[in-house]
Backbone:
């Protein structure tokens, strides 16, 4: 019975997520993030033009800007001005883009498509792509450190959190585990750990970092962290669903890349992954309700990401 209620709740929230005022607000802030990213990556006399071209090629391709919007919408949900969070949100996009460029390399996932265009290493070669990813990652730290909209103590705390999210407790370990552990037998706890490190850490960083900038109390930061953890698990389940050929036209990237990996749609089947996705969304909804954000922009945005899959 509980699963039926959860699915019904998700279906109802899907209808609420399509409200035009929420969609307009989300588009407005996505445009502001895109404009700021455009400003950040520009050629200068000291930079190698090919390197900058590779950075812009990967970063400025139209994307959902999920991580930056999670931060900005957190501010809006708590009745605060999102503008001081824009540079932090852009730093998250720099980190995410760098991780995708590295993930796509032949020595990793060997992907040929990303966001509907040839992967960076196909366009620029492996060496330039690796260096461009390092440059984006480095710039993310500099962007937070130099942000005029954030107090110095907050900047230091955010930089420490970004370092943790990228390092051996986060993205780096997640990608390493994905390459090594998913080729053998892996239980649900092992898959959840990989998903949290590969995807969830940046989602958690987005809302908790946003909450830190807003100076929210620790109990609210913890609730936001738990909420984002469920969203990250749902997002990875959706990404795995898109690996099957039926859905690949929507993803803008290679399909069938995870055929031999534990936990993939090819191993578990679509029904099991959909149920996992719906369950995580329902749990995320309950976390928002505990925060008093029953009809939030965060909810509208997140559910809009999954409309074709639930």
Residues:
């Amino acid at each position: 019975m509980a699963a039926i209620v959860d699915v019904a709740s998700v279906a109802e929230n899907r209808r609420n997520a399509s409200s035009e005022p929420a969609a307009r607000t989300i588009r407005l802030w996505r445009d502001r993030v895109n404009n700021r990213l455009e400003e950040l990556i520009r050629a200068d006399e000291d930079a190698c033009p090919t390197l900058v071209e590779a950075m812009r090629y990967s970063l400025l391709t139209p994307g959902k800007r999920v991580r930056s919007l999670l931060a900005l919408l957190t501010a809006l949900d708590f009745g605060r001005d999102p503008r001081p969070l824009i540079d932090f949100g852009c730093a998250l996009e720099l980190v995410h883009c760098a991780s995708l460029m590295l993930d796509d390399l032949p020595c990793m996932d060997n992907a040929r498509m990303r966001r509907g265009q040839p992967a960076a290493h196909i366009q620029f070669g492996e060496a330039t792509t690796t260096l461009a990813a390092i440059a984006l990652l480095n710039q993310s730290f500099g962007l937070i450190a130099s942000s005029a909209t954030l107090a110095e103590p907050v900047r230091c705390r955010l930089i420490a959190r970004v370092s943790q999210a990228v390092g051996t407790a986060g993205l780096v370990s997640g990608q390493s585990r994905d390459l090594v552990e998913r080729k053998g037998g892996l239980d649900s706890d092992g898959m959840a750990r990989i998903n949290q490190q590969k995807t969830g850490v940046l989602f958690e960083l987005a809302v908790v970092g946003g909450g830190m900038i807003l100076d929210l109390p620790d109990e609210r930061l913890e609730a936001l962290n738990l909420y984002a953890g469920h969203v990250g698990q749902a997002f990875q389940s959706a990404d795995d669903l898109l690996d099957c050929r039926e859905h690949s036209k929507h993803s803008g990237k290679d399909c069938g890349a995870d055929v031999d990996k534990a936990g993939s749609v090819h191993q578990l089947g679509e029904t099991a992954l959909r149920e996992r996705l719906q369950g995580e969304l329902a749990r995320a909804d309950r976390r928002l309700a505990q925060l008093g954000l029953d009809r939030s922009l965060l909810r509208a945005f997140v559910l809009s990401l999954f409309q074709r899959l639930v």
Notes: Residues 1-17 have pLDDT under 50 and may be disordered. The chain has one domain: 2-305. The two ends are 18 Å apart (CA to CA).
